[in-house]
C-alpha cells in the first residue's frame, strides 16, 4: 500500500525536474459517478486528489503511474501560465489551454475516445510512458485509438525535453 506521504515525495521530485511548483497531494472522497477515477489534477488549487476509495488498495506502481500522469497535467498548466519557461510551441500551449478550459469530467456527452484525443491527454500519456520506462523499466498501456499520436508525442518529448532533464540531474533547488 502506498501512502499519500510517499506520493507527495515523488511529486516533489517530479516538480523539481519539471521546474514547477509541486502540487499538494491528498486523498478525497469522489462522487459515485467518479468511482473508477483514481486521481485528478485540480488546476485551481494546484493539487492532485487521489480517490480515497481506490488508492490504498491499488498496486503501488499503478498509483505512481497515475501520479506521473496527473503531475504532467500540472506541468502543462504551469507552462500555459508561464510561457517563457515553455519549450513547447505557442500553438501547443494554446491547444492545451483550450483543452483545460473546455474539458469537464461532468460532461456526459464526451466519449472516451474524444477524451483520449485531447492534446493534454496524449501528452500526459506519452510523458508517463517514457517516465515509467525510465523509473521501473515497464511500459504503460497506450490505448490503440491514440497510439500513433502518443508515439509521435513521445518522439518530440525524447528529443526536446528529456535532454533538459538530464542536464538538470544532480542540481538541487
Kindly describe this structure.
This protein has 173 residues and is mainly alpha-helical. The protein has one domain. 54% of the residues lie in helices and 8% in strands. It has seven helices and three strands; from the N terminus they run αβββαααααα. The chain has a three-stranded mixed sheet, covered by helices on one side. α1 crosses α2, α2 packs across α5 and α5 packs across α6. It is globular. The protein starts with a helix and ends in a 5-residue tail after the last helix. The C terminus is likely disordered.
Q: Helix amount, in percent? A: 40-55%
Shape: globular
Structural class: mainly alpha
Distance between the termini: 29 Å
Strand content: 5-15%
* Total number of beta strands: 3
Q: Could you describe the largest sheet, including whether it forms a barrel? A: 3 strands, mixed
Summarize the structure.
By secondary structure, the protein is mostly helical. The chain has one domain (4-168). The chain is 54% helix and 8% strand.
Features:
7 helices; disordered C terminus; 8% strand; 3 strands; mainly alpha
Strand and helix layout:
Blueprint: H1 4-17, E1 24-28, E2 39-42, E3 47-51, H2 60-81, H3 90-102, H4 112-116, H5 119-136, H6 147-160, H7 162-168
Parallel strand pairs: 1-3
Antiparallel strand pairs: 2-3
Amino acid at each position: 500500500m502506498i501512502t499519500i506521504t510517499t506520493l507527495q515525495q515523488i511529486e516533489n521530485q517530479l516538480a523539481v525536474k519539471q521546474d514547477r511548483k509541486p502540487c499538494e497531494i491528498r486523498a478525497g472522497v469522489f462522487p459515485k459517478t467518479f468511482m473508477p477515477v483514481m486521481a485528478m489534477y485540480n488546476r485551481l488549487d494546484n493539487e492532485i486528489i487521489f480517490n480515497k476509495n481506490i488508492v490504498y488498495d491499488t498496486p503501488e506502481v499503478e498509483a505512481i503511474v497515475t501520479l506521473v500522469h496527473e503531475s504532467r497535467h500540472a506541468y502543462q498548466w504551469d507552462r500555459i501560465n508561464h510561457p517563457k519557461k515553455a519549450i513547447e510551441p505557442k500553438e501547443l500551449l494554446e491547444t492545451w489551454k483550450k483543452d483545460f478550459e473546455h474539458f469537464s469530467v461532468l460532461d456526459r456527452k464526451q466519449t472516451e475516445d474524444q477524451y483520449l484525443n485531447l492534446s493534454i491527454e496524449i501528452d500526459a500519456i506519452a510523458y508517463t510512458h517514457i517516465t515509467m520506462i525510465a523509473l521501473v523499466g515497464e511500459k504503460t498501456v497506450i490505448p490503440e485509438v491514440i497510439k500513433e499520436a502518443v508515439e509521435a508525442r513521445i518522439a518530440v518529448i525524447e528529443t526536446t525535453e528529456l535532454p533538459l532533464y538530464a542536464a538538470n540531474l544532480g542540481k538541487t533547488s
